[in-house]
Structure formats: structure tokens, C-alpha cells
Design brief:
There is one protein chain. The chain is an alpha/beta fold. It has one domain: NAD(P)-binding Rossmann-like Domain (Rossmann fold). The strands form two sheets. An eight-stranded mixed beta sheet has the order 3-2-1-4-5-6-10-8, sandwiched between helices. Strands 7-9 form a two-stranded parallel sheet. Strand 4, helix 3 and strand 5 form a beta-alpha-beta unit. Helix 1 packs across helix 6, helix 2 packs across helix 3 and helix 3 runs parallel beside helix 5. The model has no long low-confidence stretch (mean pLDDT 92).
Amino acid sequence: MRLTVFGATGGIGQEIVQQALSAGHEVTAVVRDPSGFAVTGPALAVFRADLTAPESLREAVAGRDAVLSGLGARKRADAGITTRLTRSVLAAMEAEGTRRLVVVSAAPVGPEAPGDGLLDRTMRSMISAVLKDVYADLTAMEAELAASTTDWTSVRPPKLTDKPLTGTYRRVVGGTPGAARTISRADVAHAMLGCLDDPATVKQGVGVAY
């Protein structure tokens, strides 16, 4: 497949690029500063762009089979950036007629898992309160997806770790795995790539966790 990856310099974005290249895909990594991007490969193109300007992104998404986004706020002060940048990606995709989009969101944006105990409900409530602006941003981002013409999927992990790829995790389309506490960035990337050709995930949130 011909794939474009936004947020390619982030932890999840770099994993998407590396795993996609290893799987034989042709990848365009969209970055603001190529000097901060260390991934290389014969099937990789690095595209420098202003992510706030949809017109500058059209070339990066034109003719692609799918787009993946690891865009997200890296700290609370960045809340709001995910919605703004995703809006630019959506505008570029819609202008070029590129339909398939898989983005990363977060577990608290999705529904509570049925049967979760008091500990998990309390932890979820506390985390949501501390990061309420970040999750409000992700909720707004998902609203933009729902209003778009794209065939989108939102992958919603709990707490992220830097542990290696396992390829083994729970996945719930339209819901959240019970006692969803952690998952590695590598496995989130794996799950996002796995959604690309899965029609059951189109226009759905997908909860993932160990």
C-alpha cells in the first residue's frame, strides 16, 4: 500500500513508519523538521510541510491508499493542537479524494468497559480529571472525524509505554477492553496498521490494551 504518516517524529508515528516499511509498504512521512527524523529506507519519502496549512498537505495525501496519524498533544499546554492539525489533514484528504484514515486517540474518549471494577473506574476518573483539556481536544478531534467524508478509524489506547512490539493485545471495535491499563506505542502502531484493511473498523473507535 501507499501510506502517508502524520506525526511521524512522535513515538507512535515512528513506530508506524518503521513497521509499515518492514511490511513492504511505500511510506511518506510528513514532518515539520526533517532533521529530527532518523528513519530511513528505500521505500520512504520524507515530506516537509506546515501542518496548519491544508493546501501544503495535499501533495502528501494525493493518490495514497491510506493516511495514518500519530498527531497528539505531548503535554497539557498543547491541548487543542490535535483538533486543529487533524482538521488540516481532513481538508487535504477531502480535497484529494483520499478516504482511508486511521488516527490515535485515547481510551478515556471511548465508552467505559462493561464490568470494570471500582479501581479501574476510579483510575479512569482521576486520569480524565488531570488531563481533561487533552481529552476534550481528542473528543473534538473525533467529532471532526465523524463529520468528515473519510472512512476513519480512531484507535484508543490507555497509558502508553515504550516496551517492544508484541503483536498480542486485546482489541474491541466500538468499545474498550476491560481493565485497560497499558499498551506499548509499538503495539498501538501495530493495531493502527491492522485496521487499514479491516472494514469492521471503518467509522468506529477501537479500544486496545494488554
